[in-house]
Amino acid sequence: MPIAQLTPGDIDEIVAGFAALGWPGKDRPQYERYVREQDAGERVILVARTDAGQFAGYLTVKWEAGYQPFRDQGIPEVQDLNVLPHFRRRGLATALMDLAEEHEATRSPIAGIGVGLYTDYGPAHLMYLERGYRPDGRGISYGGRVCAPGDPVTVDDDLCLMLTRRLR
Q1: Which spans in 40-85 are helix H?
Q2: Which of 118, 128, 141, 145 has its CA 20 to 30 A from that of 75?
Q3: Which stretch of DSSP H or E encloses residue 32?
Q4: What separation in angstroms does the CA of 119 have from each of 48, 55, 107, 125?
């Protein structure tokens, strides 16, 4: 499956792909922001397509992580890895992660990623563990901040366990 950086011409197909699934938050303004951030050198967005050219998934590498401990250490963060359900179990997420880690290795010896903590993230947990990612040792985070005992949090996509992997 071919993988290339996001272009403005990709946006309509990406938005339509997620709208067909009823996934919230995957709207045009998000991808327009991604293009601007990529153009400014703040983020790399990798888009995967089938051999026939159909959009299948994407991920982003944020050079200045949203998670403060990663930001303080200069660890880039993979964010927003999504593969459309009908293209899963074909090695696409692995291929996206391989390329993301190649990009990250140009700037850091360590890669970072956050993984959600509810059932939908089960396959991601296993993939990251198989790739050698380990918890960063700070417990869970919510919205990029480390949680303290007793912090009230909502179990949603912002509740994460942050993981790292040595690249070189």
Answers
A1: 68-73
A2: 118
A3: helix 28-39
A4: 25, 25, 33, 10
Rounded CA separation 57/119 (Å) = 20
Q: What is the pLDDT along the chain (168 residues), one digit of tens a residue?
A: 799 999 999 999 999 999 999 888 899 999 999 999 999 999 999 999 988 889 999 999 999 999 999 999 999 999 999 999 889 888 899 999 999 999 999 999 999 999 999 998 998 999 999 999 999 999 999 999 999 999 999 999 999 999 999 998
Q: Which residue has the tokens 């250490």?
A: 73
pTM, whole model, 2 decimals? 0.92
Contacts 24+ apart (CB under 8 A), 68-74: 68/144, 68/145, 68/146, 69/136, 69/138, 69/146, 69/162, 70/112, 70/136, 70/162, 70/164, 73/110, 74/107, 74/108
Q: How far is CA 125 from the centre of its chain?
A: 13
Domains of the chain: 3-166 (3.40.630.30)
